[in-house]
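Weekly structure sync, notes
Attendees: PL (lead), two postdocs, one rotation student
Agenda item 3: pending single-chain targets
PL asked that the sequence for the first pending target be pasted directly into the notes so everyone works from the same version. It is reproduced below exactly as submitted, 138 residues in total.
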Amino acid sequence: MLEIPGKACGPCAFCCKVLEIEEFTKKAGVWCEHCTKTNGCGVYATRPDVCRDYHCRWKEERSLGAQLRPDKVGTLLMDDPDSDEYHAVCDPEKPFSWRNPLVFQHLVSEAKADRIVVAKAGLRAWRIFADGSWQEWA
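Predicted structure, written out during the meeting:
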């Protein structure tokens, strides 16, 4: 994937907090022990495949502006690697970050494109529909 100008991780390491990483026995919502928070991954060269395979939609999609950088809105946007679902992953400490108007508008547009859109925060999840409605998922 080609780098998009202005789309580097920079000070953002939000993925290192909100994602669960079984290889490190790291739970969602807890900072990874290898993350320096200001300089990113401390084991970048030897990071596990799950980290190597992760793709941040904000970095890869030109239409997602600077104001939607994950650490700024508290929501990580990503394609689920195991399904066709589109996920908005939030910090469990701020479970409704996905309801930020900018984020929510984007999620509804993904739902209108016939995607299954799910917002997640820890063990909680919500399905977002094309009409702008949403419901908690069990």
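Discussion points:
- The chain has a mean pLDDT of 90.
- The helical segments are 15-18, 49-52, 57-60, 70-73, 101-112.
Action: rotation student to compare against the earlier draft before next sync.
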